[in-house]
Design brief:
The protein is mainly alpha-helical. It is built from 9 helices and no strands.
Length: about 250
């Protein structure tokens, strides 16, 4: 990491706890604002369409990346206000060249799919069955023997909107600032736990933790946030394809 990112890193437990606490407070507070704004948007959608949100899984799906994108924007404002020296600099002084970054992204994407499958199998051996979120399974279940029309809404949201918003928030801000202000292990652990928590799927926790660490590694190794977005996209695209065409219970 560049000197500016590693300077003044606290080493004692109390100071580390303060750093973690402040950044997590930024994250949780930003999420709260995002939820409020999404709630206002949901009320507007219900009023216009006359359909309760709980009866419209596609509308509810669209609100998820909205919450995260708003949270990322609010986090950015809070971080810059608390830390005037915040420049948005990446996690390494010299970014990896484009072609090596593309190779890294593709390699990590494939490795994540294989690793997730293996991890799911291992956890199933001890009785922990890893399953996808219920709403996603519902939207990918075949209708009259054909592809569920909801897939055409789910695909751009899961394949593009979610990776962009989630990587901007969790790796571009939360992970990066923790890595800048504390030890790298803390940045990996905290960002992975928070990433798993926001999905609200207890059965998928092992996979979410693995995914978060791989996404963070892609960013930390390349210095380019789009590498993390790319790995996230590959993971979601392959998962969606399996759910639509194979109905595999993977996350």
């Amino acid at each position: 990491m560049r000197a500016s990112l590693s300077a003044e890193r606290p080493t004692d437990a109390v100071a580390l706890f303060r750093v973690l606490g402040l950044e997590t407070l930024f994250l949780v507070g930003a999420f709260a604002v995002g939820i409020v704004i999404a709630g206002i948007a949901a009320a507007g959608m219900e009023s216009l369409r006359g359909v309760p949100l709980e009866e419209d899984p596609m509308a509810a799906l669209l609100l998820s990346p909205l919450i995260i994108a708003v949270a990322a924007f609010i986090y950015r404002l809070a971080a810059k206000s608390a830390d005037p020296a915040e420049t948005g600099a990446g996690p390494r002084p010299d970014k990896l060249a484009v072609l090596p970054t593309l190779a890294l992204t593709l390699g990590l994407g494939i490795a994540l799919i294989v690793g997730s499958t293996a991890l799911s199998w291992l956890f199933e051996r001890i009785g922990w069955v890893v399953v996808e979120q219920g709403r996603v399974v519902e939207m990918t279940t075949a209708v009259d023997g054909g592809i569920n029309p909801a897939v055409f809404v789910l695909a751009p949201v899961a394949g593009l909107a979610a990776p962009l918003a989630e990587e901007w928030l969790f790796r571009g801000w939360y992970f990066r600032r923790l890595a800048r202000r504390g030890p790298l292990w803390m940045a990996y652990a905290a960002s992975a736990l928070m990433f798993a928590a926001i999905h609200g799927n207890v059965h998928g926790i092992p996979i979410y933790l693995l995914q978060a660490c791989v996404f963070a590694f892609a960013y930390a190794r390349s210095g380019r946030l789009w590498a993390a977005v790319g790995v996230h996209f590959i993971n979601n695209a392959v998962t969606l394809a399996l759910l639509v065409f194979v109905q595999a219970p993977v996350v």
